[in-house]
Each structure stands twice: as C-alpha cells, then as structure tokens.
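For the sake of transparency, this paper describes our internal protein records without simplification. The tokens are whole numbers drawn from a learned vocabulary of local backbone shapes. One such record is reproduced below, unchanged from the form in which we store it.

. . .
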Amino acid sequence: MKNLSRRGFMKSIGSAAAVFASGGCGNISSLASSKNVKRPNILLILGDDIGRETISCYGGESYSTPNIDKLAATGMRFKNCYATPICSPTRVELLTGKYSFRNYTKWRQLKGSETTFPQILQKHGYRTALAGKWQLEDWDEEPKGIEKAGYDEYLSLDHPKMLAYSKRDEGNVFWKIPTLYKNGEHIEPGYKYGEDLFFEFTKDFISRETDKPWLMEYHMNLCHRPFMPTPDSEVIKNGGKSAIDNYLGFEGETKYFSDMLSYADKLVGKLVDVLEATGQRDNTLVIFTADNGTDNVWEAKKLRSEYRNRMVEGGKYKISDLGAAVPFIANFPGVVKSGVVTEELIDFSDILPSFCDAANANLPEGLETDGRSFMPVLKGDNSNAREWIYSWGGFIKTSRRYKDPVKYKDEHLHIIRNKRWKYYSDGRIFDMKNDPFEERPFKEGENKQADKARKLLKSELAKLRSSGRRLW
C-alpha cells in the first residue's frame, strides 16, 4: 500500500500530517464536518478468542449468534480483517495504530510513550471509558496504566493477580472476580457474573445525559478460557450460589463454550437495545470484532466448530486465517448501508485513524501510524481502500514466542495478503479465494498468477519491514 510503506510515502507526501490526508485522522470527515451534525458516539465491542468460524453470518454452523448477525444484516461485514493471533500484541496494535514490530516488546505491556486513540479522543472532547479486559497491566503504578491510556472511567481487573487466585479456586474472570477495580477502587463482585457487571457499567456510562460524545470500549472476557457456565446455563439457574462455588478455578469444561458464546451474543443485543432506548442509535458507530481466533489448548483442545462444510479447530496462536483473521462488523444507521458484505481489506492498525476520522479529531503533530481510515469504505467510497493487510506469528500452539518477540524475532513468520493471495515470509503463497484453509501452496513457476502475486507481495512486505521505526 502506498501510504503504509512509510519511507516512500512520507518522502512523496512531505509531512507526517499529510499521511492521513487521504481518509485518515488529518481530514475532515463528512460524518462530523457539518456544524449541524453531532460528532458520533463510538461503541467498540471486542470479543475475546471468538473466531469467525463460531459466528453464523461468517459461515459458522455450530452455534447461533442472532444479535451479531443482525448487526451485520443492518450494517457492513468485512470478510478480510487482520489482527494478530494472540491478545496482547493485538491490543497494543488496536490502541496505537502501529504494527507490533514498531512498539511491542513485552507481554501485557503498553509503553507509556505511546499515543492511543482514547487519549486523542479524550483531548478532543470525548468522554472515554473501558469495561472488561484491559490486560496491559501497570495496576500498581500511579496513575494506573489504564488511566494513562486515556480512559476517564473504567471497570476492569488486574489479570496476573487474578490468575493466581484462579489457580487456588478462589475466583476467575467470570465468577467472584478477586481483582476487580472501578475507577481506581477495588470492589467486591460477590456472586454477580463478571460480564453482567461490565454490561451494567457500560449501560450506565452510555446512558447518561450529556452534551459530550462518548467512546465506550467493552472488552469482553467471553469467550476466553476457562470455559465456565453463564447465568443462563442450567447448572447455575438450578444451583444458584452453591453451584457458582464449583466454578471458581483456572480450568473449565469444553461443553460450556457454546453457553459463553450465546451469552456474548445476548449482551451485544442488549447494548444495541440500550442505544435504542436512549435515542442514541442513529448517532452511534457500533463495531463488533475480536482479538484473535478461537482457543485450542487446555479444555479448548476438544473444541471443534463446523465451518465451510468441515469441522475446524480454533486458530489462536497460529497465523492461518483461522487465527489472524477476525470478525469485523460495522453498524451506523444512516451512514452504513444495510446488508453490505465487503471484500475490502482492513487490519487493526486502521482503528486509530478510523475512530479519529469519525470523531473529527486531528492527530498530534508528528504522530505516525501504519493504518488508514476505513470510514470512507463504510460510506461506500473504496477509492482509497487498502491494497494489502499484515500480521505476524507462527504455528506453535503456545504464547511463549509472543511474550518475548525480540528474543524470538528470527522465528516469527510475517504474512501479507491482498483480496486473493496470501504470502508468507518463508516464501509460501496461497490462493485464498480457492484455498481458504491454506492447504495447497504454489511452487515458483507453477502458476503465473501466483508468481506475479508472490513477487508483488514479497516486495511490499520487504518495504514495510524496512520502513520507519523497528524494534525487531
């Protein structure tokens, strides 16, 4: 992509501010340029370990997701969106608009020097909040990491300390969360389901009457392990508190994954209902996405989902499209047409410039990102859409290499794809249109179209990996 090969683009454009002149944060979006139009609210719902194969509108056949499907049916569903195959680097990329090799060096860490989109929107008059999984830590610092990242309010948990409790069967991310914090104060959840607490916090924040627009991020813990029953599961409905006490540990049961996904879908529907009830639906951009593919270790080893006429394992940790490609649905009545399924390419580096574009929020001077705004695409203008998307990782089902990317830098694979072809840094190339499960790589000289795509994507990947600031 012309503006993502940063050196070449910066040389041709001439200034950092101009990087976004063609549809990013630096321009005045038609969504917010008129003095008579309120700047939109933004609701980002980030699922945890929810792969595309689990969602009905993406072709999943094992589960029912009517509310997520309705968002897609009345909005735009992206067929091609890349995150990374695992949580921490995805969340850093999401917040900063930069690919991992520029600013991610340590598990659960967001560098304090990084600029985030909540910070930018906060400075441009938005109320900002996060509910759910933060994971990027610094809970023992003052101000806390989540506060420095630009959130006025939050309800979240200290994840490492919570894990220690769960290994002693004293509470986990779903039941009796032991390390829950609301705006800096520790709170006791009692027997309330964690996701219900996050929903109520989100509902309260977005329902307040105020002249300011808001940014609300609901980072679900659903459907991350442990696979635990929800309040809608029969064992909890019938057993009450005594039943809950049996589900406070580190490992769950495969059979509860479907209950968790159903509950996640239910909460999506309830949040849309809140927007309708408060008269904010038409002025709110709603995004549903996920951080990576479905899990495949511990109790998830046995999990299989029907997708495209076959049973598949979750893709978390792996840079196949079951791991790196994630669901991405945008819904904005009056702006996004209903029922659009697009093959235009986006990745998580695009979220920062897109949200800034929607909010008419200029970037801080000199800030560079790897992304470009997808807001024009949402409005039907594909003239400046991406030509490729990028991710990285491997095929070993463990987080070890992701936790120390510098140490394992020579073992990472880098991937880049356009609408049809996907290229790996080890030289493999796949025709994703005809081989979506990546089973038949083309050898050099075997297919002229594949050879042409290999040459192009290899060149673009080399430009990207040699551009700008790189830490590994």
Remarks:
- The first strand starts at residue 41 and ends at 47.
- The chain has 14 helices and 16 strands.
- The CA atoms of residues 287 and 330 lie 5 Å apart.
- Residues 257-277 form the longest helix (21 residues).
